[in-house]
């Protein structure tokens, strides 16, 4: 029997930008970018895990929104679920306290400027579609960079 363990990743959005975090460990993931988050513990809800992980890793007071539809396989036995999240009023700004050595807030035209973990690319793409449908971020995918495409002239 194979047991799956859910890793929750946060699509933390603030002021129309998505937070990306560069992993500092383990060595095979170091230097690549991900959605901050971590493993859901036994008996813990996914949204509670997300809030806990964001507090531990980034020092922020966040609240979970909704789950982005989909599930992405990571190294067995892990699977990635993505939840939208936002900072609560009065939260500290995120800092790379644990697991990461750099953070970047990415605007709609910058999403693919960072070297996401390979396994995160489809999750990020789906997250953008989800956020775009909700009136949030929009961006074209990796390899289809169209500078300025998201700018709507003449408003
Ligand atoms: N948080 C997160 N982990 C990811 C992503 N993509 C990806 O492959 N992973 C992997 C890295 C790790 O092997 C695993 C999650 O581990 P973690 O180290 O972030 O979780 P954690 O804080 O609960 O870990 P732990 O040190 O307490 O055991 O999933 C992602 O976008 N976000």
TrEMBL record:
Gene3D superfamilies: Nucleoside Triphosphate Pyrophosphohydrolase (3.90.79.10). Transmembrane segments: none annotated. It is an enzyme of class 3 (hydrolase). Keywords: DNA damage, DNA repair, DNA replication, Hydrolase, Magnesium, Metal-binding, Mutator protein. Its cofactor is Mg(2+). It catalyses: 8-oxo-dGTP + H2O = 8-oxo-dGMP + diphosphate + H(+). InterPro entries: MutT-like, Nudix_hydrolase, NUDIX_hydrolase-like_dom_sf, NUDIX_hydrolase_CS, NUDIX_hydrolase_dom. Residues 134-155 are annotated as: Disordered. It comes from the Bacteria. Its EC number is 3.6.1.55. Residues 3-131 form the Nudix hydrolase domain. Belongs to the Nudix hydrolase family. This is 8-oxo-dGTP diphosphatase. It comes from Streptomyces koelreuteriae.
């Amino acid at each position: 029997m194979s047991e799956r363990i859910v890793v929750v990743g946060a699509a933390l959005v603030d002021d129309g930008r998505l937070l990306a975090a560069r992993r500092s460990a383990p060595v095979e993931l170091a230097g690549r970018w991900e959605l901050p988050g971590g493993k859901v513990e036994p008996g813990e809800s996914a949204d509670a895990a997300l809030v806990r992980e964001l507090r531990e890793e980034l020092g922020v007071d966040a609240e979970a929104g909704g789950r982005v539809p989909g599930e992405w396989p990571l190294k067995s036995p892990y699977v990635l679920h993505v939840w939208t999240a936002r900072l609560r009023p009065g939260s500290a700004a995120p800092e790379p306290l644990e697991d990461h050595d750099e953070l970047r807030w990415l605007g709609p035209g910058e999403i693919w400027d960072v070297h996401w973990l390979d396994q995160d690319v489809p999750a990020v793409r789906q997250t953008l579609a989800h956020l775009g449908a909700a009136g949030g971020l929009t961006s074209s995918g990796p390899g289809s960079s169209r500078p300025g495409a998201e700018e709507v002239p003449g408003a």
